[in-house]
Design a protein that fits this description.
The chain is α+β, with helices and mostly antiparallel strands. It has 12 helices and 35 strands. The chain has a 17-stranded antiparallel beta sheet that branches. One of its GO terms (cellular component) is chloroplast outer membrane.
Length: about 725
């Protein structure tokens, strides 16, 4: 009979037995019992097979292994993609190398009944391997076994199946009954036996189990138990067919899998008899390579060819198409988006024709979210028909594109007054101009003394550029306190520095974690008193401009390079900045200013050490208020803003140790040191010398930090080297 279901094939041959033969010798009663057992086992196998069929419907189809004549498993691309998807997300392990044991019953010319068990790579099926008894002088006897099977169908023979037969000798032989050429394989087969031993009484079930154990050793593609009644007793022979020797490997459709990795996975098996267990381990390692990298790839088929060549087929799901689908923020239903799909697609590193990687897809999701115009982003892979490829659907939920906002803050430049440092702000912003992710921000900040009005337009990625170059255009009118350099007026008067600035900057990443900026900035700057009148000298008669006029004009060419580590707070950072004044007109200032800053964080247990260093130098004719000010919240704590010194050069170093306290709160112990390197007197008018600034100093103290949406909120208390104490409050990390 033949039973088919998908790619599983079960076959059994009819058995012909002459009824008179059962009365000729008492030993043949065992054969009758054995035939009944065989009928029962076949029936049980069919019932088990039907149950397995139902299970197979809900399981993924694994690869299939055959000998000499490969049997193809017609796995559809949709099933493979489904298998890979579940493998990637860890729901199941769809590809496995397991046993398939199909029982083939035949009558040989000599009348010996064989039950042959073959091994492949597929879903495990329950089957039987029955024990048959024969006598040499009965080889020409036959009966109508088909009629007997039909007569015995439905009867219970479990008692006969458990009856024991005394075995005098157990041998392992070839299919032709000869000794195996390789004794190591014979030893492997004998070592796999558990129940079958010489001078032991065995049941059919125990023989079955040992047949399975031989197959499960991995060295044999078939095993046939044959029992022969001899003069010395019943001899049980396991006729085995060893696998071929591993002579070569062919891997197909592996476009991203490194050939070196494949060679390493199979290296130990070259020149040896193919072992299915070792093949299983190799395939598991290959699937693991894909899974570790989030790639949609899997071993889909494996077979052996003549000459011991193993052919490995890999299914890698390439990206067929990428589409954008916008979802409503409230209902989650598809809707029309404001953003151009091309603006989103060009942000993705996943391209058509690539093998889809879930890790790369996650990075693409993070990149789209970093644009600031999406509230939620997800990628859904779907099979692209039966092509073996995958279609990607990116679901995007857009944020409101713009609106007004108001807020407040604190300026570190204000050190006295009843409303010291308070700032109010009002702004309008649009995050997605023209649906191209372009930004427009108009803001106004107003404090007790300082104020800033700013218009900024940014295109994060210039259209037509393949280097991810961004462009920023800025116009700003600001008034900031001048006490950083020209503070501590004896008459308690104050002055402010007014600046009108306009410029354009271009930025792009040029290496991983490295970015560069180039720009051109024009600045019109001068000093004013409390009434807003222009002034050119302070109380000490120190000049406030380099040109001697009420204002200085400068055209700056700017170059900046920044390295950022992981981007987390306390990660490694380095920045280098150079500005060159271009004297296009004779009255425009000409100078060169270089600054650099670095930061390094080290985790030790729950604590974290943070070291930072910054410095700079100016050469040429520059405005005195542009000198480097030392001291204050973001410099040397324990001093007022700019109280340590102001010079053409400076160096400031800091060391901090922070430790968690509770929830978002952490404590910190710190120490700072800064110096103008003796350059204070070289600033026009020597404003630091006129105010008796020391030129160098240090501070130390402790504080608390609280994480907030605005960044770390810092409240610190520090002592300087004059033993004077001072509170400092800041928002965000130190510069």
């Amino acid at each position: 009979m033949h039973v088919h279901h998908d790619d599983v094939h079960f076959s059994s041959s009819s058995i012909r037995i002459h009824s008179p033969s059962f009365k000729e010798h008492p030993l043949l009663t065992n054969l009758q019992s054995c035939s009944k057992t065989l009928v029962s086992q076949l029936s049980n196998t069919r019932h088990s097979l039907n149950r397995v069929f139902e299970l197979i419907k809900n399981r993924h189809s694994p690869p299939r292994f055959t000998q000499t004549r490969p049997v193809r498993r017609s796995n559809s691309h949709t099933q493979i993609l489904s298998s890979v998807t579940q493998l990637m997300i860890g729901k199941s392990s769809p590809i496995s190398l397991s046993l398939i044991q199909s029982t083939q019953l035949n009558w040989s010319n000599s009348g010996v009944e064989d039950i042959e068990t073959t091994r492949g790579l597929s879903s495990p099926l329950l089957c039987c391997a029955s024990l048959s008894l024969t006598r040499p002088n009965e080889s020409n006897q036959s009966v109508e076994g088909k009629d007997m099977i039909q007569q015995q169908k439905g009867h219970s023979v479990s008692r006969n199946a458990e009856e024991r037969v005394l075995i005098s000798e157990v041998l392992v032989r070839t299919k032709d009954g000869e000794e195996l050429e390789r004794k190591d394989l014979e030893i492997e087969a004998l070592a796999a036996l558990k129940a079958c031993r010489a001078n032991s009484a065995l049941t059919i079930r125990e023989v079955q189990e040992d047949v399975h154990r031989i197959i499960e050793s991995g060295y044999f593609c078939s095993c046939t138990p044959v029992a022969v009644d001899t003069r010395d007793g019943i001899r049980l022979m396991f006729q085995v067919e060893p696998n071929q020797e591993f002579r070569g490997l062919v891997c197909e459709n592996a476009n991203v899998l490194p050939s070196k990795f494949i060679q390493e996975a199979f290296r130990d098996g070259f020149g040896k008899v193919i072992n299915i267990k070792r093949l299983e381990e190799a395939i598991t390692s290959i699937n693991g390579w894909y899974m570790e990298r989030g790639l949609f790839g899997i071993v889909s088929d494996i077979d052996t060819l003549s000459g011991g060549i193993v052919r490995l087929q890999v299914a890698e799901a390439e990206v067929n198409n990428i589409s954008i689908r916008f979802l409503d923020r409230k209902t989650g239903e598809p809707t029309k988006g404001k953003t151009s799909p091309e603006t989103i697609l060009r942000q993705l590193t996943t391209k058509k024709g690539q093998v889809y990687s879930m890790l790369q897809g996650k990075r693409d999701v993070d990149t789209v979210l970093a644009m600031g115009i999406m509230e939620d982003v997800s990628i859904i892979p779907q099979p692209a028909g039966d092509s073996g490829k995958v279609d990607l659907i990116m679901n995007c939920v857009e944020r409101p594109s713009g609106g007004f906002s108001a807020g407040g803050g604190i300026s570190s430049g204000i050190t006295s007054g009843p409303l010291s440092g308070l700032i109010g702000s009002f702004a309008y912003s649009h995050r997605n101009l023209f649906g191209r992710n372009q930004k427009l921000n108009v803001s106004l900040e107003r404090g007790q003394i300082d104020s800033i009005f700013r218009i900024n337009y940014t295109d994060p990625w210039i259209e037509g550029d393949d280097k991810r170059t961004s462009r920023s255009i800025m116009v700003q009118n600001s008034r900031t306190p001048g006490n950083l350099v020209h503070g501590n007026q004896p008459d308690n008067s104050s002055l402010t520095i007014g600046r009108v600035t306009a410029g354009v900057e271009y930025s792009r990443p040029f290496r991983p974690k490295w970015s560069g900026t180039a720009g051109l900035i024009f600045q019109h700057a001068g000093a004013r008193d409390e009434q807003g009148n222009p002034i050119i000298k302070d109380f000490y008669s120190s000049p406030l401009t380099a040109s001697g006029k009420t204002h200085d004009e400068t055209l700056l060419a700017k170059l900046e390079s920044i390295y950022t580590g992981s981007g987390d707070r306390g990660s490694t950072m380095f920045a280098f900045n150079m500005e060159q004044g271009l004297p296009v007109l004779p009255e425009w200032l000409c100078f060169n200013r270089v600054t650099a800053r670095a930061r390094k964080g080290i985790h030790i247990g729950p604590g974290r050490f943070l070291f930072s260093l910054s410095g700079g130098h100016v050469v040429g004719n520059f405005s005195p208020h542009e000198a480097f000010g030392i001291g204050g919240t973001n410099s040397v704590r324990g001093y007022e803003e700019g109280a340590v010194g102001s010079g053409r050069s400076y160096v400031v170093g800091s060391g901090e140790m922070s430790f968690p306290v509770r929830g978002p709160v952490e404590g910190v112990i710190f120490t700072d040191y800064g110096t103008d390197m003796g350059s204070g007197s070289t600033v026009p008018g020597d404003p630091a010398g006129a105010r008796l600034k020391p030129g160098s100093g240090y501070g130390y103290g402790l504080g608390v930090r609280v994480d907030s949406p605005l960044g770390p909120l810092r409240l610190e208390y520090a002592f300087n080297d004059q033993q004077a104490g001072r509170f400092h409050f800041g928002v965000g990390l130190r510069n």
